[in-house]
Amino acid sequence: MTTEEYAIEGLKNILYIDLGSQSYHVEERPDLYEKYLGGVGVATNLMLEEYKEGTGPLDPEMPIILSTGPLSGIYPTCTKAVALFRSPHNGELGESYAGGHLAMSMRYSGYETIVIKGASRYPVYVAVHDDKVTFRDASSIWHLSSAIDVGKILREVEPGAGRRSIIRIGPAGEMGVTYADVNVDTYRHFGRLGLGAVFGAKKLKAVLISGNRELKSPEHNAYRKTCNLLYDLIVKTGLTEKYHNLGTSENILVLNELKGLPTRNLQSAFFEGAETISGELFAEKYLLRRVSCAGCPIGCIHIAMLKRAFSKAHEYEALNISYDFELIYALGSNLGVADPEAVLELIEACEKAGVDIISMGVVLAWATEMQQRGKISTDETLGLELSWGDKGAYLRAIDLLVKAPNDFYRALGKGIAYASKKYGGEEFAIQLGGLEIPGYHTGLGNIVGLAVGFRHSHLDNAGYTADQKAFNHPISDEEIVDTIIEEEDRRSILNCLVPCLFGRNVYTYENVILALKSIGINRTEEELKELGKDIFRKKYELKKKFGFKFENLTLPKRFFETPSTTGMVEEERVRRAIEMYREKRGV
Amino acid sequence: MAKRLKVANPARCIGCYSCMMACARTWYDTISLKNSRIDIQTRGGIETPYVQIVCHACIDPPCMRACPLGALSKRKGGGVNLNKEICDGCGNCIEACLMGAIHLDAENKAVICKHCGVCPKFCPHDVLEMVEVEDSGEVKITDTGPAPDTSPVSPTASHKDLYGGEEPGEEE
Ligand code: SF4
Ligand code: SF4
Ligand code: SF4
């Protein structure tokens, strides 16, 4: 079946934006959508087309590709857009997903995929309103101290309220912190791997997209029925309950009990203060409301209200801060912070700066240990003493890191792989592939998953779930590797479509096939699985071009010194499992 | 018995747009947000509470009075019925509705809530309800006892408990 026949509007268009010449054009690529459906499939192929050997992550010619898929914006919980870029953080494949209103706005604007190239000479933002694309001088909002405020301002100057998405960077992106994020509609982010720095290098402060078109529906009754079915699965069964109720932060106590919660730079995997930063505590004491990405009835975005006194005369300010598991790990257990309000304040500081919070937390944890071991002194930190649990010191460190007044802070702004090469402490720089680790120390599956994952993220293949399996009923290392491979392929397929991964148990093969069929796209399970394999090959091709080599992977000693959920892990065992993976995958 | 849609608990809205998607796909053969008869709006991005704009089921509808062609007639239970054949897209009704609950579709026909009862079924957060009213649209006073305690049985009462009831065998 050809794309023309499925006649879902927006399933052929690619909007090319050139920031250098402030021009744009639209290309129709039914061939790409036909084969790869959308999302990461289309984006990966476009990146292979666009990438010229030797182009650096921050070079103007390096493109940023944003893409949505055939299910985006039209089925419940299909809310994600993928961003593909070359990461300034580790030089490798930059891939990140964000929700908010972005996917829906892109879908209804008729541009399912957007490629942004070139660099502007002065700060700009780009506004896309249905088919109109405008470039506007953003000099007046460059240097704002908060990524949140950028949204507040653009909301006033641009139309499209409620049907638009505003993605923007904060000071960290402008300053080139290599793990700067892109804030999406205040509460969601393109978090990992430094898309914010790529925006900054292009002098791109923000992109605003609004769309309000109608899409054709070739088999409307089937579409309606499938919507109802998916909605019921999401709302009326237990499949997504966890994300709605306590949210991912439910995992703080769970992982802590399992001794898998990285604490104080992974010197331990158990945090004695977990109770007071648990999802339960945040929900009971601070949860103000929940919100959702446009098109998702789950409502997993947990917003806390922090009421802070600023004078003795009962004067208060109220801050609304979204929290989840990874943030509480990164700025809580991993920094020895057991005070929930301190965690919220640290989150807020990072949100304003516009940085990936996992990387920031791990960088600060590493710096703390460095200082405690006397490998750096107050000369490097400009007098600041870092110590576990010290909110004030960490707030200052975040501020200094973004402002980068000396070489040390500049190095911290490039991540711990870079900083530890310069200052030592590589054994306890808890990164894999140059990316600071997420909040799991569950065992072999986790470490292998992060090592082999396309972008070294827990979201590539959820290696920690393989450990969970192993914890319940011992399984062989080979089975762990197989679980990782299977999950990786499944996620590659989903990431073409693009549902939120919190809905992954709803979007089973069966339901994906039904959802596609109901909008006139016929695929079998075998075809989808083949697509997953194809994407795997294409992404590894891209990774290779960006310079990734298994031989260069360093495995910090710390992983093997701290007992995990499934016990001590030996380096040799991890290396063997990685070999096993490579053999099975042929990479 | 006549019924009308009511935005019963606006502050509970999570901005999922499920109601809009459901309305638009029920009454149009396309996929959109723009053809929804209920409109979920943001006033300060997602940072501030959502606003639900929908027909208020007026007892004496000003939109009807404003229509020069007589395309709108009184609906049993309040609000209006639209005769699409007659509507020519002049927009006078839009002006007349202070709620801002009317807009035009691609064919230049007014889009106004029919109080059909579909969207409350798709609201996961108890925002929307169908309420019984007199045929005239007047509110019926039936409850005279103390207001019920709406706090959940347990602070962690789940979505599933509230909306799906117990369903066995899904603990994973
Ligand atoms: S589960 Fe949460 S992140 Fe995922 S789409 Fe729904 S609201 Fe957004
Ligand atoms: S009651 Fe019916 S017509 Fe009115 S907004 Fe809801 S779904 Fe649409
Ligand atoms: S379905 Fe309910 S919670 Fe969702 S946007 Fe509509 S009114 Fe709000």
What do you see in this structure?
The complex is a heterodimer of chains A (about 575) and B (about 170). Chain A is an alpha+beta fold and about 575 residues long. Chain A has 3 domains: about 5-210, Aldehyde Ferredoxin Oxidoreductase,  A, domain 1 (4-Layer Sandwich); about 245-430, Aldehyde Ferredoxin Oxidoreductase Protein, subunit A, domain 2 (Orthogonal Bundle); about 435-585, Aldehyde Ferredoxin Oxidoreductase Protein, subunit A, domain 3 (Orthogonal Bundle). Chain A has 26 helices and 18 strands. In chain A, the strands form 4 sheets. In chain A, strands 2-1-6-3-4-5 form a 6-stranded mixed sheet, with helices on both faces. In chain A, α19 (about 445-450) packs antiparallel against α21, α19 packs across α22 (about 475-495) and α22 (about 475-495) packs across α26. Chain B has helices at about 20-25, 60-65, 90-95, 160-165, and strands spanning about 1-5, 30, 40, 50-55, 70-75, 80, 105, 110, 130-135. Chain B has a two-stranded antiparallel sheet. Chain B has a two-stranded antiparallel sheet with strand order 3-4. Chain B has a two-stranded antiparallel ribbon with strand order 5-6. In chain B, about 15% of the residues lie in helices and about 15% in strands. Chain B contains 4 helices and 9 strands, in the order βαβββαββαβββα. The longest helix of chain B is centred in the first third of the chain and has 10 residues, at about 20-25. In chain B, β7 and β8 (about 110) form a beta hairpin. Residues about 165-170 of chain B have low confidence and may be disordered. Chain B has about 170 residues and is α+β, with helices and mostly antiparallel strands. Chain B has a single domain (about 5-140), classed as Alpha-Beta Plaits (2-Layer Sandwich), CATH 3.30.70. The chains are: A alpha+beta (about 575), B alpha+beta (about 170). The interface between A and B is large, with 55 and 44 residues. The complex binds iron/sulfur cluster (SF4) (3 copies). One iron/sulfur cluster binds near residues 14 and 18 of chain B.
